[in-house]
Amino acid sequence: MTLKADLRPTRHDRVIDLVAAAGVDVSDWANFAGGAAKAAANPKYCYEWAFVDPKAGVVVLNLWHHNILEARGRVTLTTNLRKVSETIKAQRGNAMRARRAASFDNAVRNAHEGKMLVRAILNEGDRDRDDDSAIKTDVVRFRALDPLAWCVKSYDVRTGDTILVRDDLKLSTKDQFEVGPLADSPADRIAVSGFAYVRDAAVRAAVRRRANGRCEYCGEPGFLLTDGNLFLETHHIVPLSENGGDTVANVAAVCANHHREAHYGLSARAIRKRLLAVAAKAGARW
After folding, report:
1. Does residue 184 form part of some domain?
2. pTM, 2 dp
3. For a disulfide at 50, which of 17, 67, 104, 124, Cβ 3.0-4.6 Å?
4. How many domains, in total, are found in the chain?
């Protein structure tokens, strides 16, 4: 299966949830007649093609899956929404579409000039032609947030020509051993002593690369940290306390929920069996 095929969305998540998951503040979505209960349907936001949060340093772009290209393991998209906006206006087409296209172009420019993090919502549905000005209504059948970041490879300020690149080769990852302690309310501190196992950083890094941004048990993507790193927790499938090896064959990258379940859940034994099989299968390629 190609990388592009693997990125084809198979879910239909709500835009508000995907935008929030990307790190953009969505609190203002509730400020309309429908209130918080219907915030996801706020027409001021839910039909937009781009979302910008300067404070968070994040830009979210709606992209059509069929428009992305793959070559030599790199996923790119070439577009020019400024030209689309100008074409719609010249044809006296849908003014709302022209505005959304212009907003998309402005978001790309902000991301390029401000070096902002770009997240992509990948859409699949009824859209037979690439000529935006000729399409009256787009119908999205599937929609999902790409777990990895994108970047604006190039942007021509004069023309609006844009090249977006899925930044998977540049995006680094972190696990629970590389992030600082959780921010919490002040509490009393006590001194503790004891022993801890030393984990090989190279093994953890190799396993995170192998996972390619997704939990090796459930397949769900990790989440992006505020510094742009992707977070997955590394887990010794057979614990070190049970003489499990500190090797790529015995370490998995998993989401936080399944990491805890692997230690404390009723399904812990089944999770161990599944992860050992996943690591063994991957061993043929690593």
Report:
1. no
2. 0.61
3. 104
4. 2
